[in-house]
Amino acid sequence: MCQLLGMNCNVPTDICFSFAGFQARGGVTDHHRDGWGIAFFEGRGVRVFLDPQPSANSQIAELVRRYPIRSLNVIAHIRKATQGEVKLENTHPFQRELWGQYWIFAHNGNLLDYAPGFDGRFVPVGSTDSEAAFCDILQCLAAEFPDGPPSPQALHAALRRLAIRIGAHGPFNFLLSNGERLFAHCSTRLTYIIRKAPFAVAHLADQDVSVDFSQLTTPEDRVAVIATTPLTDNETWHAIAPGTLLTFRHGAPEALGDTATIAGGSEAEAGSV
Amino acid sequence: MCQLLGMNCNVPTDICFSFAGFQARGGVTDHHRDGWGIAFFEGRGVRVFLDPQPSANSQIAELVRRYPIRSLNVIAHIRKATQGEVKLENTHPFQRELWGQYWIFAHNGNLLDYAPGFDGRFVPVGSTDSEAAFCDILQCLAAEFPDGPPSPQALHAALRRLAIRIGAHGPFNFLLSNGERLFAHCSTRLTYIIRKAPFAVAHLADQDVSVDFSQLTTPEDRVAVIATTPLTDNETWHAIAPGTLLTFRHGAPEALGDTATIAGGSEAEAGSV
């Protein structure tokens, strides 16, 4: 299985601290050695850094860790291959364009007996179940909303239906973003934290590194960090209930009308942090 | 206007030497300061590095210059903005997927009174004439060949027709690749060189840097480098005749049946190097 990391903020923020801990899981503190990638939205544009090498000794990961790219939405992934060879085309996150927006997707899980039909609008380039699921999602969104982006409520509802259908094939934890919102679906395991004033010192779980966010932020800043497992060992992370799709915007989960759960649980912690 | 750099090889080759000279044009030896980008195909996958900062003092460009990524097809671009603000979403090269292949596009020129209609299959994210032309091309290819990639001859012919139509709006030098072939269209200015055995020493025109390719290659290696203007000052570069679309494969222009020119010239130098 893989590791997911996402960030959604109300002001452009760099992810250097969180990425430092995450990067260590790609071959140092954990066994996710089959490549890694990270996507930064900046305005309408997106930058994706991909590397089929382990992140723990990747020169590109070193650059990302040291070079502060400020972004409202970030999605990163460290791969432990289940389906698809260790190749660049199978490295998450994946990118496509829909409605004149770039979309970014990364998946943790393993979908079995899953062979969606593609009409040609979005076709997988690699051989992972994950990219197939991404193309499936976008194909369905394009078909349901051919005239452009729907309301946030309609988009959330459509993604929940798709998560239920595809998630029937196996673990389907994913992060998805169009640069405006970050969608986080927990199928088996996904956690998040909201950092906001008063900011404190955070200490990484995977490396002996601390950062005092009060020195780096303004009182209005709000940052949501979503990860497969908590990245710090002195903060309270919230487990997202399996079967839940959260939509993050401006650094917090967004209430989108019907926020009941997908599969019978409760919408975890939304608005309570 | 902008600067283009492309590379097409018969064995995976790094572009560090050529990129060193190219990078200097982004703010040191030339005035193309409005961002830069480079795409490396590796197998079916592609890595795109984008930076809205000038390449001459970009940390990401430094990484690309020093970190040998071996690729059969590379497209790079340094931007001097004509249309569209200096923003990430307007930074070349652009990426889309068609027929389960990634496509990469970069443009040097300026298209006026050009407003193609988009049916939703490919929609520009940014505001450049270049990305609009890329979406126009892919939309037309998808419509003409809905069942998948056509023959190389049919693809070449379709691209020539599109280059004529779009090029009627202004200078339309471009590089386009699907990872298998690299298409180079000269509208006003584009040059190329084929490096093959016996390899010699090359010296950059933009920096006092030389490389002895005989030390880095095998006798079977063949590398085509395409650039807006020659990158070295001790080799013979071939000017591509305006109105010509060349298809490069395995490090050489490919004869694709009808290789007469687009606009009355002659297919420049193909096979003569």
Automatic annotation (TrEMBL), chains A, B:
Q: SUPFAM superfamilies under this entry?
A: N-terminal nucleophile aminohydrolases (Ntn hydrolases)
Q: Glutamine amidotransferase type-2 domain location, by residue?
A: 2-251
The reply on keyword Electron transport is no
Keywords of the record, alphabetical order, are:
Glutamine amidotransferase
An example of a Pfam family matching this protein is GATase_4
What is the name attached to this protein's record? Answer: Class II glutamine amidotransferase
Taxonomic placement: Bacteria, Pseudomonadati, Pseudomonadota, Betaproteobacteria, Rhodocyclales
